[in-house]
Design brief:
Blueprint (H helix, E strand, L loop, with lengths): L3 E6 L2 E6 L10 H15 L7 E6 L10 H5 L9 H11 L4 E5 L2 E3 L1 H7 L3 E5 L3 E3 L2 H4 L7 H9 L1 H10 L3 E2 H6 L5 E3 L4 H13 L3 H14 L4 H11 L7 H6 L5
Parallel strand pairs: 2-3, 3-4, 4-6, 5-7, 6-9
Antiparallel strand pairs: 1-2, 7-8
Helix pairs in contact: 1-3, 4-6, 6-7
Length: about 240
Amino acid sequence: MALVTREDSDGIAILSLNRPEALNALSPSLFIELRQHIDSIASQTEEIGCVILRGEGRSFSAGNDLKAIQSGERSPSAHFQAETLDAIERLPQPVIAAVQGHCYTGSLELALSCDLLVAGESAKFSDTHGKWGLSPTWGMSQRLPRRIGLLAAKEMMFSGRVVNGSEAVSMGLANRCVADEVLLEETISMAKSFLENSWFTLRADKMLINGGLDNTLQEGLLWERSNSPGRGPDMEERLANFGKK
């Protein structure tokens, strides 16, 4: 049985963590399959315009699979999981996390590597590194402050408390919170709204935003001017069709 499944429809690739019996715990084997899908999607910019990452069953993911680690299961390299999250963040296409149920620690880091997040009403976000005497290596200390701000990130990490879906929206962790039964439907609807615009621009926007985050404002403005790809191949057609609908 595949630990990560992929379904493509109308330019959207839906990747599903597929260990519902283990609350989609993030084993090294699951990460290997996830990385294969990510690397494949990265080269399919003409076929895939947006990606959705979700979990089967009642949880997005309970986090890193401690049982797999205890049993001796190992990743291909020391930082394979962190590098896979980097690969998700670097995907040319926008990536939306659809989160229901548990989204703890490693799975929160996974969700943070996505560009956007839609939370179900059952969603529970938490950083439990402190519960186990661990420290982050998959990006929590860098991505969480950039997503929700320094004070909120420190409080969340230091306390290990659980944040629900509606609070996640209010603190900027999630874009919106919806009923669980329409979570995937609403996430697909968001993705489709993106794909009505130029896929070229979607990719350019993501590249320019992410690239500029490593700079000061002034450096970022210059970086945008130097790295913006300018006009897309579909611009003339879109201008010609303006006002026809």
